[in-house]
Structure formats: C-alpha cells, structure tokens
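step 4 of 6: structure.
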Amino acid sequence: MATTHARAAARLMISPSVILLLGWMLIPLCMTLYFSVLRYNLLMPGDTPFAGIENYQYFLTDPAFTTALINTLVLVVGVLVVTIVGGTLLALLLDQPMWASGIWRILVIAPFFVMPTVSALVWKNMFMNPVNGLFAHLFKALGLAPFDFLAQAPLLSIIGIVSWQWLPFATLILLTAMQSLDSEQIEAAEMDGAGALSRFRYITIPHLGRAATVVILIETIFLLSVFAEILVTTNGGPGNASTNLTYLIYAESLLRFDVGVGSAGGVVAIILANIVAIFLMRAIGKNLDA
Amino acid sequence: MGHISLNKVRKAFGDVEVIPPLDLQINDGEFVVFVGPSGCGKSTLLRLIAGLEDVSSGEIEIDGRPSAELPPAKRGLAMVFQSYALYPHMSVRKNIAFPMKMAGVSAEEQERRIAAAASALNLTDYLDRKPGQLSGGQRQRVAIGRAIVREPAAFLFDEPLSNLDAALRVGMRLEISELHKRLATTMIYVTHDQVEAMTMADKIVVLRAGRIEQVGAPLELYENPRNLFVAGFIGSPRMNFIEGPEAAHHNAHTMGIRPEHIDVSATQGQWQGRIGVAEHLGSDTYFHVHDTGLAETITVRASGEVALRHGDTVFLTPQADKIHRFNNEGLKQ
C-alpha cells in the first residue's frame, strides 16, 4: 500500500501540523537567541544595538547566578528524595488491605489536583504564617516561639511545599508498580528464608526501579522550572536565598526590564537542563530497558 | 529425611471449607503426586504444607516436628512455582544463591553448591544471564536449581510443567523423575494432568473437592479404582461407564470397562455399534462407537492399525476379567 504516491500524500496531509509545531517551537527559540545578543532594556526604549556575548557575560558573572544554580539543584534533589522515599513508604501503606482504601487513595492523590499558586498560598497563609499559621499555633501550644519558616528556612519551606504537591504523583506510580509485583515472587522469597525487610530490600525495591526512574525523569523536568511557589511565597528572598534559575530569569527580564539578559539566561537554562537530562539518562536510563 | 504427616488438617476461607479434615502420610524419599480436576484443593493442600497458607485446624509434622505454626522458611521445604517466580533483576547465579545468602551460607560453600547444581541441571553456561534471557525450560531448571541448593527435606512442585509446550513438558518430566532418582529426596508434585501423575509418581493422591478419594501406587489406582471418580479420572482415554440392564447383567449398578479392554471385530461380538470418529494414530486406533444402546459413546482402543472407518458397523467384546463393578453409591463392589 505504501506506494510513493501514497507516501507523498501522507506527507502533504501531516505537513500543516508539523509546520505549526515546528513554528511554535522554533520561532520563540530563535527570538530568544536573537534577543540574547541585543542590548534590549525596556527602560531605554528605541535603540536595540547588537551586544555580542555581553548579556551572557553579565548573567554568568552575576553572583546571584551561582546561588540560583545551587538553589535549583538543591530544590530538585531535595524534592526528588522526599517524594521517592515518602512515595515508596506511602505506597507500601496504601498497598495494605484496609478499611475504605479507595477513599484513602483519593485523599492521598488529591494534592496533585491543587494548582501550584493555590497550594503555595494555602501553605504560606494557613500553615507557615508566623502569627496566624497552624504551625505557629502548634508551636505556641507547645510553649515554643513560632518559627518563621519562609524567612528562616525559605528554600527548605519551598522544598516542603513542592514535595507535598509531587508526593501523590510518586505515590501513585510507585503504588501501581508495587501492585504489579508477582505475588509468587514474594512467596518464593518467603520460602527462601527472606524476612519482611529482606523481601522489601531484595525483591520490592529492585522491582520499583523502573517506576522510580520514570518518576525521577518526569519530576526533574517540572522541578527545574518551579516558579509559582517561589513567586507567591518568598519572591526569591530573603536576598536570593530561594531564587532558582527560573526565578532569576524572571527577575532580570520583568523586574529589571532587561530583555537581553533575561533571554541570555533563558538560553543558559536550556543548556543546563540538557546537561542535567544527559546526566540523568546516563545514570538511570538503563532501568528503562526491559 | 523428609517424612511428612498431615493429621486432621482442615482449611476454610471464611465460611467455605476448602479442605475438610484430612489425614495423609508421606514417607521419606517418596514421589507423591496430588492430582485432581481444577479447584479440587490440591494447590491449597501444597501451600498448607509449604506454610504459605495457615491451616484452620489440624497438625502438620515434618520429620516428626510439629510444623503447622512454623513460618515457611523454617520448615526446610523448597518449592518450585508454576510461574517459576524467578527474581527478574538477578542473574541466574544470584537467583540460585539467594536462599543460601538468606541462610548465611559461606561464600565458598555457596560457590560450590551453585557449581554442583548448575552442572546437574545444564545451567553452567547461563549462570550470568538474567531470567528474561532464558527459555521456558531453562527458567524451570533455574527454579529447580534454586530449590536444590537449599538441600531441603522435601521438594514441593506446584504444576511446574503447565507453562511449557508439549514436547518440552515430556523432556522436563523425565528430568524431574531422574532428579528424584538421583537425590532420593521426598517430592510432592501437584498436577491436573493424570499422565504426569501416572508416569512420575510412587504414590498418587486423587483429590476431589478437598477430599482424598484414593491413595495408592499408579497401577493400583489404574487396576483397582475405589470409586467411579477415580476410575474416570485415572486412565486415558477415560473408562466407559455403562448403566442399566447390561450392568445388571454383570451384577452391578454401573459397570466400567477401559477402552483398551474391549476387543474389536468387524464380524462378531457381544455388542453391536456404528463407528463415529475413528482416530488412527498408527501405534493405536481409537474408535468412538455410537448406537450400542449401552451408553451414548463407547470409546475403544485397538492396538496397531485397524482398517475400520467412520460409519462402519463394529462388534465389541469386553474382556470379562477387566470389568469394574460399582454399586449405586459409585463405590467399587
């Protein structure tokens, strides 16, 4: 059936979507690249002369850049550790036969449906507020001074908020993986003399490897670009204690109105994200092979 | 070592009694096959012995030691599962080593036992492969290897050959029989295939609905079935049952005659019928004979090739000394 004629027709048919998708991707990318080599500041309208690599130099030598880079990595790794470990434990719990397990599962999955801005606001005002927050009340009830989470430990607080959002996703994927474990394997291990801990260590955890890899890869993509939670809670501060790369780019282009430096930051972020992706695939990609 | 005795063992899931109280003795070195139709409780019985299910009441003694309350690992039994249950992320070597690792066997001893098991099971070339890279028969052998290295008091096999194709099944059947001869360890083997039971067993336990219908050596069950169920289950093709006046003529409520104990003739005999399907295998010929007025179909097995075809009239004569007589409760008279 696949005659030259039919193939040509097929290409013609799919070309509008391909062109649209390519344009959607390539035009912004090219414009970012273009803006990144211009001196383009919205506070100085009119002239946008060619600036060469000046924007890159400025962005990369900015002391905030190193801090933002480290913060980004800490945020990603921190949330990954919390969600994978917590997700495994929660999945283990939800996998047990218990009363109304359907309701428990829905409750555990619920945070995933709360949009980031809302959840960050809820956490900021209902839980972490040093005057009215539930944690403040809890501390006071215990006779302790309230802890100002977002001022004292901003990055850790954000890791907490983002982990809360991503825990359901990790739990869900790991739970389905756990349920797909062949019960005869567990029984065989039991016959072979493995106790509950050994069975978990030697049978369950290796079985979860592939699912955990999927969780890590997908979460990393989203965690590299965490933004709303930071904007709503700390605005990247105090200082730049909770500024990540995404927030730094936002600050350059929309707070300092420097489109050129912002674009350069965007290009740097793309390159860094690709480095992370290559590193991740090297490290854990083999888990995905059957 | 490997004497297992079940004493009034009973198993119920909620209100459903799967195994009513049951007694059974399994002697050291015996190859015992549990056989029965699906859902008869044979796998449950094996899992009770293994310790993967808890008995509802009764006692299991393994080598004289009360074991009903012991966890599976402490019973000194090894099991080969229907799905093999190999650990997919471990190499063959690590799979076989796993029970020894759990038992804290020294590294040299592990290596020695792995080498011995691998050479006995023709696995030496595959030790570094993962289970996913092996064929069905090889996986089966790895599962057996994993059982052997534990040097158990008894091996438990849960329908181990049902996932293999027919040719491989015959080969593995022989291998397991040879293994039993070599190790002389007690083996308990669950199957629904009566051919496996007849060929491998020292002792067959026929189960129906959790009850033991008969225990005995294969030929004993073949020659002297205790009731209609055993008579119908053991032997292939199954025994012909005839009721009514013809049975009464032989002083029985039901008379049974095996297909191989009926003589076929084109000219004369006791019963007359018409051949339905004729299966010519070369070594044997099976006739499904209709219109005898005795039963809907009488199956006959004739040795060698017999030149009778579909639709031919045929005369059958049962061998008088091979007739089984059952009373109206289905028990052998």
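step 5 of 6: annotate
 - The mean pLDDT of chain A is 88.
 - Chain A touches chain B at residues 182, 184-185, 187-194, 198, 202-203, 206-207, 209, 290 (CB under 8 Å).
step 6 of 6: archive
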